[in-house]
Amino acid sequence: MSSGNRLAGILSALVITVAGLAPGVVAAQTVLRTISGFSAGSAISRTFDEFVEKVNSDPAAPVRFRIMGGPEAMPPFQLGNAIRNGVVDVILAPGAFYSNLMPEAEALKLSKRSPQELRASGDWKYIEDLWREKLNAHYLAYTNYGNQFHLYLNKPIKAPDLTGLKIRVTPVYRDFFSSLGATVMQTPPGEVYTALERGVVDGYGWPMEGIFDLGWHEQTRYRVDPGFYTVEVGVLINHDKWRSLTDEQRAYLTKMAAWLEDRNSSNAAVNEAERKRQADSGIQAIAFEGEQAQYWVDQAYRAGWESIIKQSPQHGPKLRELLSK
Ligand code: 173
Q: CB atoms < 10 A from the CB of 208, how many?
């Protein structure tokens, strides 16, 4: 190679590097390294999977998601650290998987207002600021809104009293089930089957959707109704990454996030189908009625807010006001 050619080679490498660093100069797609708390193809990840597929197959998309894996790629309770430090760019996770870092993350499951309502009223800004300040994350989209959590059991109960029962939890359910006398044991979803099979627990908390994904229906006799709270599973992006994107990329992601949140309207029908599928597989409903049903749900919210306000006297009361309006 002549020295002239070598110089040209070095110069073109420099040009590529500089162009690659200058935001907005290059039209190339930015790749967002993404880890999900739920396996692709599972019930909880259904609308998120649709979103990733929609973006990644859009030839005009200025970003794309590279899915690095699900819970096998990173233990779910480590997702919060990973998004805060920028070890990954994007996560799909419920607040419960990172409320060790910000107890306020448990508040969204208590929301009586949809993400659309919160955004339209401007109240979402409080959430956005809090997630940035505490988790160094931009809360992009709220999935699973409108789904509910349930208690699943292998021993029958006649009243909202869990004394003597060992229940698998995450922070979603911990305060509620404990307040009714349960002994609680935290596990990631991946350990629920074995805990049930070995009789280490008598039951578990989980949404209506998804108990078939890991075969738990084989180890489940009862579901307690009514459901409580709303399921909240967020698409979060590391805030440094978010700031490094161009205006166009941020606008695109924001538009697609609204599309994803609109997909929450498909949840009600999926819920009904799951209820039927559970019944067909032999799971019996223990359905509280009247005052017992009211107490079950009221106690869930009471215990949930009490815990958040205790852990975050600064933000808890304001969150309750915004989310309960
Ligand atoms: O693991 C869990 O039970 C949990 O916290 C959760 C939260 C949202 C959706 C599914 C599971």
A: 23
